[in-house]
User: Fold these one by one.
Assistant:
Number 1:
Amino acid sequence: MFTTGSLLVPSIIVGLIGILIGGVINVLADDLPRRRRPSLPHYPDDTPRPFIAWLGITAYLFRKHESPNGIELSRRHPLTEIGTAALLILAMLSLTDDPLMEPVQFVFWIAYLSIFMLITVIDLEHRLILFVVIIPSYVIALIDPFVTTHGETLGDNLLGALMGFVVFFGLYIGGFVFTHVMATVQKREINEVAFGYGDVMLIALSGLILGWRSLIFAMFITVFLGALGAIVYLIARNLSRRGYSMFTPLPYGQYIVIATVLMMLYANEIAYAIRGY
């Protein structure tokens, strides 16, 4: 699709597309968790943003990140746009090492990466993985094998979705059982569980995109990243002297997303690294 000697212009174009998509992601992340129809970009106090501030990057560059009422636009907005652009550029660069990759597959990758960025933003901010995002994503992933020929077969993808759902649904139920037991032992109410049902639906989406073979690696990576993230969180809490309250829920969706994206873009390299050749 691209040659290694002419990547500058495609990278700029893809980066600009990523920034625009990041702007759309920000709008959806602002409105969907509030159960409201997506509208034109607005400040946190619902004041409409001027056209120059529709993107978080331009809002900060032109000092339009504050509403007339003094409410600032979150730094999440420019960061999301930059992050989306970086993801799409990485996806494009990964195509240079695979001459068999079809251009249409990159279109699906853009859709997947955009969806994963939206899921991550909402999960980090609200600890929610919304069905209104997940269900249309299933439809896109089901269409993929009929349009492209480079990835897994539809059967492999469906098996991946089933595998991910069964494994994480077991963890989901196990979390409820563990929480119930601990609540009984400690004689206090505990309302949080390690895995939410949204995480179960998300890993099923990952399986539908990756297929069952790559999902196995993705699940191992997810567990490793989740454990590493929990350790970093504990260290940070102790260093800040704020301590840690047992059963404090930690967003898990971003680890599933990171593992899935890694397997999407670098499946062969990761498989070789894990197998030792």
Number 2:
Amino acid sequence: MKKTWIILAGILGLILVIFLMYRSTYNSAISLQENVDEKWSNVGATYQRRADLVPQLVATVKGAAANERGILTQVTEARAGIVAAKTPEDMDIMGKKINTAINLAFEAYPQIRSTENFKDLQTQLEGTENRISVARQEYNKAVKDYNRHIRGFFNSMFLNKETFPKKEGFKESAGSENAPKVEF
């Protein structure tokens, strides 16, 4: 009878070990699968950030540039009127008499800020593209870890291939290996 209990305990012990291995493998696969899904969602969130941010930045820079263009046009036209004037009566610009000597001596050129805005736009675009690149790399790493886990020798025997299918990493668009043309 003692021998029977030892064999039964051995079988139950083996079943318990197999169950614990399966549970560990299954839970790890779930965790890795969820990590892959989270990383892909992060890629999508970064794309959404770009879609929301870039048009607003471009509109702001365009508006600032158009505003400065208008100011510079008005200043240039005003200067042209002063230079063309031959008498003090000719210097009536916008209903104001202008003292040429004082105006020319203290006139300051408007500060051009649109160049700074364009630099800021470039910085934001570069930062956004870097965030997208990092998100894609993190996604690919998560896919690699997941696929390595589910394809392992023992794990592939325990895990259902329909529940835990192999995932594909981020794929580049056709032609993306070619540098884009930049035209102004």
Number 3:
Amino acid sequence: MLASYLDKNKIEVGCDEAGRGCLAGPVVAAAVILPKNFQHPLLNDSKQLSEKKRVQLREIIHEKALAYAIGIVEPKKIDEINILNASFLAMHKALDQIPKYFDSILVDGNRFKEYHEIEHHCIIKGDAKYLNIAAASILAKTYRDDLMSQLDKEFPQYLWRKNKGYPTKAHRAAIKEYGITISHRKSFKLLPEQLSLNF
């Protein structure tokens, strides 16, 4: 069972992002504060859950969380500052919108950029260890999936509704055939090295 907190005396906010490894679309982060006594048997790392369960849990998180917020960084900015800094920026944007006081940040992963001198803890595989990080991973993932499904209506040839912008064979085949869109990340290796792409 996932832990409810790292320090019971702190007001902790969990942070996670989705979409770092994608070729297209934004990187999306979420920040979530859960009640100390919150538990749910299904809540886990979003990557270990079906899409149906993620959507189900999103509604529960919306209802039960003390506070939550989403931060988004678009592909153009990702290309300007690189994906690692864009991930930090997305998390900071989410934290900016949390209306409730917090004094500790639990971040999934091994790196984070300090946020307003508030203490933070980087936790590898934190989305499988702490409920608030798991909740953030679910909100980030489901929100980003919804954005990619919307973009799919504009650019259906890339099959983003299915691949969500990740580098699948079908996605790369579509890039080779149709070129790129404003939603592609030009700083990423969009095609294998043996294939060239003109911007």
